[in-house]
Write a structure and sequence with these properties.
heterodimer, A: alpha/beta, 3-stranded antiparallel sheet, 47% helix, 15% strand, elongated, B: mainly alpha, two-stranded antiparallel sheet
Chain lengths: 398, 310
């Protein structure tokens, strides 16, 4: 009896030990670090695609599990609150226009240490795009995708005016607009009172947004842009009764617009029957364009930096970005990833397009000044020189 | 009177009664303080504490993660007071408030006078006039942007091509018009309550004297509504000074566009805090604006709200 009891007890102890050992072993082999990646919503299609990319990451990485958080509205404000609470997501989107400010505020982790440690090759990123997220030699994020501006024209409006190709130069832009006007198009070009469009014209005139802002090259470029509006060859979206220039193109309110690759999914879903063409941005004395780009960056307050780096570096790797580009919703920031979905004309601007924001910590305030002063110049209550002088001061934080 | 005195005098003659009364009063006071404590606690946590904290941070360079450097002083106040954009914001809000409050009061009072009459369908009109006040201002502003755009319904009717909310010369008045319409329903409710508290006999006396309706309104109704005037001017005046949502939606953000025409103090504060991450400047602007609103309220209390001697 005692012998049998001892055997049973021994068996129980043995089974218990085996279970505990296997649980311990399992625990060791499946130790998973959770990281949160946050971004804003860019519509259902893009949100779903991003979730698919994250799912692939989770399937191929057993030690790191990423959770996607979409912040639907007021992204910058929501992130500011989370930074202040020292509870930011580990990896998140950063627009190139705010990277300078957030870097100065000390909320973004420098990636140099991780790059050096893991020998991560950054040379495949287009240098101007990567430069938008660098301060000196310090990298604060990798561009996840990007878009420059391009020239989009309404084909049927062009055909009616006897025009067969989109304008390539400032001179052609003016002459095409005049031809369209003669064929009944009141305002052939749609232009926003926005430096995020006009800035490209400054570079096309060999001007700059970062130095010598009050130069004659900049003055002439502004006068050309504002002149198109004042002459009636161009009109703002508000005058055309539309929300933005893409809508003006779709509704045939204007025949020529300058927008980024975001116009493609919009036209496909909203105006599927409108035939339009996409060509590289018009050029003046030189080719000039702006690069609107967003990075994946890491929070300085992240509790899981190594896991965050694993995620961030994979998302911006050739493999991660190829999956991200698979549905043709955006433009690759890496030269070793191909653009699909009719985005080739945009890619031609990669070598010279300047990252919007320019890493300037005062850019938000300067952009407020830019927008307000440009409307003042258009209405005639301010001169071009005054505006450029105001913007130069604002960029310096004065 | 005598009976009352006797009863009062009788109190000490009953041993223990005073202490029982004292205990009851203490218990009552305890309950009272207990009930008051919760809202005071909420008020302190969400209003007093942030206010004092805002004053504190207004003396520092304060970023997203808190204090930046050890420098402290009144530099944020100096920056705000010397910022031409803040001056524009103050000028815009002054013009807006001086335009919108009289219009809200005039329209609200007119509607109140109308529905105070014994007319058929009075309840329907009351509900209809009040409806814009309870509708979401974001929804109303968005619809207004659509109706008043360059090729919107309004321009189709009047044969114009002006983008009312995108033109610096008209956007301010467009917001005034929009808010006059949306707020007048609430003003109407306050005036209606005040109108119904005016005793009938003063109107009967006027009728006996064969006073005209116009004269009755200006000599009897309007002066007797003085407490309502004061209340509405203070409440809706402060409301107007806190303009934010319409200006934010119209400008599609806190930029104050076009040409700073929608730049008002709350937008300025918001932009400094959440746009420029400069919470010290934002706090200083908030404190300055609080002082301005507080001073205006005192002035209104001493002028419009002054009690007539009996």
């Amino acid at each position: 009896m005692t012998k049998r009891l001892a055997m049973v007890l021994g068996l129980i102890v043995l089974v218990g030990a085996l279970v505990a050992a296997s649980a311990q072993a399992g625990h060791k082999t499946h130790k998973v670090t959770n990281v949160v990646v946050a971004g804003w919503s860019s519509g259902g299609d893009e949100d779903n695609l991003l979730q698919q990319v994250i799912n692939v990451f989770n399937q191929t990485h057993s030690s790191v599990h990423a959770t996607l958080q979409i912040i639907n509205t007021n992204y910058s404000q929501a992130m500011t609150a989370r930074f202040a609470a020292h509870n930011p997501p580990d990896v998140f989107y950063v627009d190139s226009s705010v990277i300078g400010q957030w870097q100065k505020q000390g909320v973004i982790q420098s990636l140099n240490g991780f790059i050096n440690k893991s020998h991560y090759n950054t040379k495949k990123f287009y240098p101007k795009l990567l430069g938008a997220f660098k301060h000196g030699k310090t990298v604060y994020g990798f561009p996840k995708d990007w878009s420059p501006l391009a020239t989009e024209v309404n084909n049927s409006m062009f055909a009616k005016a006897g025009l067969h190709a989109a304008p390539k130069t400032w001179a052609q832009l003016k002459s095409d607009a005049k031809a369209l006007q003669q064929h009944g198009v009141a305002h052939p070009i749609c232009l926003s009172a926005d430096w995020a469009r006009m800035g490209a014209f400054l570079y096309q005139n060999r001007g700059s947004l970062t130095k010598h802002l009050t130069s004659q090259a900049n003055v002439r470029a502004v006068n050309f842009y504002v002149g198109l509006l004042k002459s009636g060859l161009a009109a703002q979206p508000s005058t055309l009764g539309v929300g933005w220039c893409g809508e003006a193109l779709g509704k045939a309110k204007s025949a020529i617009i300058f927008e980024g690759n975001w116009v493609l999914p919009y036209m496909k879903s909203t105006f599927p029957n409108v035939h339009y063409g996409v060509t590289p941005m018009v050029k003046g004395k030189a080719q000039g364009n702006l690069a609107f780009t967003v990075s994946y960056s890491m929070a300085k307050d992240s509790q899981n930096k190594q896991a965050a780096w694993t995620l961030l570096s994979w998302l911006t790797s050739k493999k991660g970005q190829t999956i991200w580009m698979s549905k043709g919703l955006s433009l690759p920031s890496r030269s070793d990833v191909k653009a699909i979905g009719g985005r080739a004309p945009f890619l031609k601007a990669a070598p010279f397009a300047r990252g919007w924001g320019f890493g300037n910590p005062n850019f938000n305030n300067a952009y407020t000044v830019m927008g307000n002063d440009l409307t003042a110049v258009i209405s005639g209550s301010k001169t071009t020189q005054q505006m450029l002088s105001d913007v130069a001061k604002a960029l310096k934080g004065q | 009177m005598m009976a009352s005195t006797s009863a009062t005098e009788a109190v000490p003659s009953r041993p223990g009664f005073r202490s029982t009364m004292l205990g009851a009063r203490l218990r009552e006071a305890g309950w009272g303080y207990g009930f008051v404590l919760a809202p005071i606690g909420v008020f302190g946590l969400f209003f007093i504490y942030p206010f004092i904290y805002a004053i504190y941070i207004s003396f520092y360079h304060w970023g997203i993660l808190g204090k930046q450097g050890s420098a402290h002083g009144t530099f944020n106040y100096s920056n705000v007071l010397h910022d031409p954009i803040f001056h524009t914001a103050l000028r815009n809000i002054a013009e807006y408030t001086f335009a919108v409050v009289p219009l809200e009061l005039a329209l609200g009072l007119s509607l109140a006078l109308l529905i105070n009459q014994k007319i058929r369908g009075r309840n329907f009109f009351r509900s209809s006039f009040y409806f814009p006040s309870i509708a979401s201002s974001v929804a109303i502003t968005t619809i207004a942007l659509y109706i008043f755009n360059a090729q919107g319904l309004f321009n189709q009717i009047i044969g114009s091509n002006r983008a009312w909310f995108a033109d610096a010369s008209t956007v301010g008045w467009s917001i005034v018009g929009l808010n006059t319409w949306t707020t007048s329903g609430t003003v109407m409710i306050f005036y209606l309550a005040a109108l119904q508290s005016i005793p009938d006999d003063v109107y009967e006396a006027a009728a006996v004297d064969a006073t005209s309706a116009w004269r009755t309104f200006w000599r009897i109704t309007f002066p007797l509504l003085k407490p309502a005037h004061f209340f509405c001017i203070v409440v809706f005046g402060i409301g107007a000074l806190k303009l934010f949502d319409q200006a934010f939606i119209v400008a599609n953000g806190a930029s104050g566009a076009p040409n700073y025409a929608t730049m008002v103090p709350i937008i300025y504060i918001y932009n400094e805090a959440f746009g420029n991450s400069d919470f010290g400047v934002a706090a200083a602007a908030g404190v300055i604006y609080f002082v301005i609103i507080f001073a205006l309220t005192i002035v209104m209390r001493l002028t419009v709200g002054r009690q007539e001697p009996a």
